[in-house]
Amino acid sequence: MQWPRELERSRVAWWLIGLALLVVVGRFALYFVGTLVFGLFVYYGARPVCRRIDRVVEHRGLAATLTLLAIVVPGLLLLAYVGLVGFRELTVALEPGTLAALSDRAAVPGAIGRMLRDPARFATDFDRIGELLDQLSAGLRQLGIVANVLVHLTLALTMSFFLLRDGDRAAAWFRQEVGGEESAAHAYLTAVDADLETVYFGNVITVSLVTVLSVVVYNGYNALVPPAVTLPFPTLLALLTGMATFVPLVVGKLVYVPATAYLVWAVVTDGADLLWAPLSLLLVAFLFLDLLPQAVLRPVISGRSLHTGLILFAYVLGAAYYGWYGLFLGPLLVVLAVQFLNVVVPELLHGKHITPAASAALGLGHDPEEAAGVPADKESETE
């Protein structure tokens, strides 16, 4: 089709403006990539719950609010509890002299304390102004770190709220303006959407169940064995075991194996005949905190749509390369790549028309046609 010259210039100008906007927005998204992927994780982890609440209240905005309250409030309480338990058990483990030194470091800095107690006298001592400014700068930097974390957390939760509330509207716009329900683009993104919900929501449920099991196992072990071979910080170790379950195959080994090794070393050092206790803990932890999540909980909750090895590399390598947010970005990249291989690559290699049909060779992830709801008889029509 031949466009008029004026219209062609106008289209080129609009494309250039769109490209400039894409570059600016891309740089913005790259700077906040950790916040964005964490917001996506919260969205997909909470979406099944939001759907169930929406069926009851029949109001999407109220359902999104109740869902986030049901997740955020317990999450903040859990973090507060972890901090409280960690501090309490740290004070039990450390010597009084160490605690006094930490208390002095954590207290109000000397110059600030003297100024607050006697500001008139402090004002006459100009030699301490530099000391005060240095300590104020250090305090402001620490407050800045805390404020930055809170801002990013708030942005991630706000993003997840709007996705929960308006996600269906965005999907409807895409179907109407970009790709219809029988297009390859719609099938690709729908399959990615289904896979991300499977991975993220399945991990949230698995981590929660393993955390509860760890609390029972560790505290039950301490209640049954002699004091000489009890676990230090059992509740804190249980919470860490639950968090370690995010990584498939590795799971609780990151916590219970070093803890058991510590107990074995303590028994061997003391010469006590209590080696049965840590070995029993190792066996019970392997069965209930390792084998049960891998063989029963994760397949039942998450299904078998994605290869376990791919998800393992996604979590481990994502966190190793990108840092903390790689734990959420890694699975996202793997899902995007797998569905691209499923839907697009075979037709590109063979020079065929790209259809919603998945590659039969891979068989990974959700089937794009099933996820998009494409009827089976449509495949022959699109080829």
From TrEMBL:
Pfam families found in the cross-reference section:
AI-2E_transport
User: What does the entry list under GO cellular component?
Assistant: membrane
Localisation per UniProt entry? Membrane
* Taxonomic superkingdom: Archaea
Which keywords does UniProt give here?
A: Membrane, Transmembrane, Transmembrane helix
InterPro entries recorded: AI-2E-like
Membrane topology, as annotated, equals: Multi-pass membrane protein
Q: Which residues cross the membrane?
A: 12-42, 62-84, 143-164, 199-221, 233-255, 275-293, 305-322
Q: Record's PANTHER family?
A: TRANSMEMBRANE PROTEIN (PTHR21716), TRANSMEMBRANE PROTEIN 245 (PTHR21716:SF4)
The record's comment on protein family reads:
Belongs to the autoinducer-2 exporter (AI-2E) (TC 2.A.86) family.
Q: In its UniProt entry, what is this protein called? A: Putative PurR-regulated permease PerM
Q: Which organism is it from?
A: Halolamina salifodinae
